[in-house]
Amino acid sequence: MTIDLNAYQTEGFFDEMLVRPNRARSYSKELAQFLRKLDEGELEARQVAADLAIKEMGVTFTVYSAEQGSMIDRAWPFDIIPRIIPRDEWQRTERGLIQRVKALNMFINDLYNEQQIVRDGVFPEEVLAESKNFREQCVGIKPPMGIWAHICGSDLVRDADGVLYVLEDNLRVPSGVSYMLENRQISKRVVPELFDTYAPLPVDDYPTNLYEMLVSISPRKIKRPTIAVLTPGIYNSAYFEHAYLAQQMGASLVQGSDLFVDKDDLVQMRTINGPQQVDVIYRRIDDEFMDPEVFNPESMLGVPGLMRAWKAGKVGLANAPGAGVADDKVVYAFVPEIIRYYLDEEPLIPNVPTYRCMYPEEREYVLEHIAELVVKPANESGGYGMLIGPRATRAERAEFVKLIKANPRNYIAQPTLQISTVPTVVGKGVEPRHVDLRPFILSGKKTTVTTGGLTRVALRKGSLVVNSSQGGGSKDTWIVES
Amino acid sequence: MLSRVAETIYWLGRYVERAENTARLLRVNAQLVMDTPRGVSPGWEPLIQIAGLQGSFADCCDEANERNVVRYLIGAGDVPGSILFSLGAARENARTVREILPRSAWESLNELYWYSRDHVQQGVSKKGRDAYLDEVIRGSQQLQGVFASVMYRDDAHRFLRIGRSLERADMTTRIIDVRSTDLFDEEQIETQTLDALQWISVLKSLSGYQAYRRVRETRVRRSEVLAFLLQDPAFPRSVAHCLNGVEESIGGVGNGQRVLRRLRTVIRKTGSLNVAKLSRQDLHQFLDDVQLGVMRVHEEVANTYFLLQYDTSQSQSQVAS
Questions:
Q1: Among A89, B31, B102, B219, which is most exposed with the fewest C-beta within 10 angstroms?
Q2: Is the CATH number of domain A220-314 3.30.43.10?
Q3: Helix B192-205 vs helix B155-180: angle between axes, to the nearest 10 degrees?
């Protein structure tokens, strides 16, 4: 039997391909037809071919293996059915992302300088005071063009209402863009017919855009500044990406020990012919490990004196240290206000509605509706100390009511989202699985957004966890003429 | 080019070459054993000595029989110096300099790595061994083809070539050594034919048989074979050719006077060797000396390019790049 889309469940969620069983959305008709017409077992055979291609291309991510007690290199999990987004919707999204990142950069620059937004009472001082990612060491610095977050990866999810929401902004060292590029290469191999039908917009201008953005922040205005990608090394989970991007840009891939800062505050690489000055560093190391002179003194990954060189304007750093201050759950809740404040515009992409318990009205709402909400502590990450209202017991809810009342500033709450699904290969057939979308926004002399982004998919039935280290996979994302 | 990158690429070149030559070593020995009358065959033990693995081999196996030696050198248990170990190390090195290598080179190496792992059971079986070793050699040659045809000729390529050439020179002497250290006396060799057969095996294992026949005499004689494998600059696996390649690449990188001095000592010694008058013991001694010379060259390459000491506060006084 071939693939039967009548059995495909769309109940309760927005499915990106089907409106209801066997009824495709206008831009998915050809994809649905393609699936229906495949011979028995062919879908599975193509998935196997894709997995083999990924192994031979060596597209990997690194995870800790408890079994082997060490870091191992794993093949990148990829599902061959593309996720389709119509172009007009994407253009609106793109404008919204550019607006959002522009405001976030203005916000970060303001926080490290005049703090006008705090003085005007739009952003509360106490939230800033408790921010884990605010770096005192960056106060008073004005990087070129006022840009701190040169590379931003924003996670988008589509709720049951069909609307795309921003779930979070990653402003420190967002990863995943190399997989977006490799996914396209593999799609071309395994579903070439669909390219004839859809002609998805190409994605491969990203490395060029990244290179040009990095050149634009070089302190030396020379024709070919030396660009380096700073990696923690081969045991980092995103090492593949670091090497990939360096290769695509023709940049040097360096580790901390390859660099030093000289007495003139210039950053130098150790080459076979002696030192060579580095103009721009795309650093894929967290703030805390970047410079043992200023941050974590135990760090073996960083470069002593790097902050000194940056402050002196002798090297460009992307992202700027301290950019993570805007990458925080409570700050997130303020982004719509931040956009209005700096740009005097309405946000084009909505936030997931977020209730800040520090405000009495919003707190009242949270306490009344706690059974429907997800409650998150402000200063925890990785899902710790969370309450998922609909799944919690009465006692657990009562406990959180007490916690919120005791320390309202420490909690935010959001409605539980019904994030959208896409058809995904399961054995010989297809089943719906939940997805998110991470586009990447580059800010330099000009601002560019990836065409689509990385679609991550929770491969386990019913799961909402899209992280590759926890059973998540990925899909190629196609922006198509509608 | 970063010192770390230069060093990594150099070792990448060495490890790939080592894997290929270990495969060649296993094949030549298998041929040799099959061509030798029962009772006089030196067996498989010499391979362990030639690879310099006596110590670790003793920890794993009691007896240096065919099964144990083959398993050991292919590397069922990830033994240092084995094929699997070398390819694994080559791949790890390639991973850390992935941005420098042509994409197709990485893919080729990655494929070879997976092949060697996924088919290791075939490799250690008597029936499947030859095909497995053949595939390893073929994979390595495919990779060399990628390097030759698409890699940009800059310092990265030069360090790759330096590593590869030093390793190849070293391994060619080791492969000749299989023949020279066999335990039976010359009197035990009953006929000239047997002697010739064995040298033919050595030539074939280094893919040099056809060229030898074409440019040397039709008879395969020990002294001619030695001249061919040690001194003929036109044969790509000869010691002379490999060392000349190192000399050329060092010249291209620059700043290598100390390396060149050591290198030229080995080149002179090889060139002036009188192959006709060499006793078996002398040959063995000579091969040992070449291996030692190669090691010295390696040390100097490392001192000159990989281990540069910087006074980080005084970089102005350093050589500008």
A1: B219
A2: no
A3: 160
Distance from CA of B104 to the nearest CA of A (A): 9
Q: Is B218 on the interface with A (CB under 8 A)?
A: no
Q: Which of B96, B100, B321 sits opposite A273 (nearest CB)?
A: B321
Looking at the DSSP assignment, which residues form a beta bridge with residue A474? A78, A456
In this prediction, residue A179 carries a pLDDT of 93
Alpha carbon distance A404, A394 (integer Å): 15
Tally Cβ neighbours within 10 Å of residue A186. Answer: 20
> Is residue B100 less than 8 Å (CB to CB) from chain A?
yes
A259-261 sheet: strands from edge to edge: A259-261, A267-271, A274-277
Domain boundaries, chain A: 220-314, 358-415
Q: Does any CB of chain A come closer than 8 Å to the CB of residue B308?
A: yes
Kindly state whether A275 is in contact with chain B, defined as any CB-CB distance less than 8 angstroms.
yes
pLDDT tens digits, A437-464: 999 999 999 999 999 999 999 998 988 8
Of A240, A261, A274, the CB nearest to B318: A274
Cβ pair A410, A387 in contact under 8 A: no
Q: Which ipTM did the prediction report?
A: 0.74
- Which residue among B1, B106, B308 sits closest to A58, beta carbon to beta carbon? B106
A360-376 mean pLDDT: 93
A416 burial type by CB count under 10 A (0-12 exposed, 13-18 middle, 19+ buried): middle
| B320 Cβ under 8 Å from any chain A Cβ | yes
Q: What are φ and ψ of residue B311, in 5° steps?
A: -90, 105
- Tens of pLDDT, residue by residue over A121-175, are 999 998 898 888 899 999 999 999 999 999 999 999 999 999 999 999 999 999 9
Determine whether the interchain pair A255/B1 forms a contact, defined as Cβ–Cβ distance below 8 Å: no
Q: Does residue A319 have a cis peptide bond before it, meaning omega lies within 30 degrees of 0?
A: yes
Distance CA A260, CA A267 (A): 6
Check if A220-314 and A358-415 are the same fold: no
Q: What's the pLDDT at B166?
A: 97
Are A44 and A425 within 8 A, CB to CB? yes
Tokens of B297: 């060259």
Write out the two tokens for A15. Answer: 């499915």
pLDDT values of chain B reduced to their tens digit, one per residue, 321 residues: 999 999 999 999 999 999 999 999 898 888 888 877 777 777 888 888 888 888 888 888 888 899 999 999 998 767 878 999 999 999 989 988 888 999 999 999 999 999 999 999 999 999 999 999 999 999 999 999 999 999 999 999 999 999 999 999 999 998 888 766 554 445 445 556 777 877 888 898 899 999 999 999 778 888 899 999 999 999 999 999 999 999 999 999 999 999 999 999 999 999 999 988 888 889 989 999 999 999 999 999 999 999 876 554 433 333 333
Taking the Cβ of residue A71 and every Cβ of chain B, the question of whether any pair is shorter than 8 Å is answered with no
Q: Which residue of B has its CA nearest to A233?
A: B96
Tokens read off for A189: 């191999």
Residue A343 class from Cβ within 10 Å (0-12 exposed, 13-18 middle, 19+ buried)?
middle
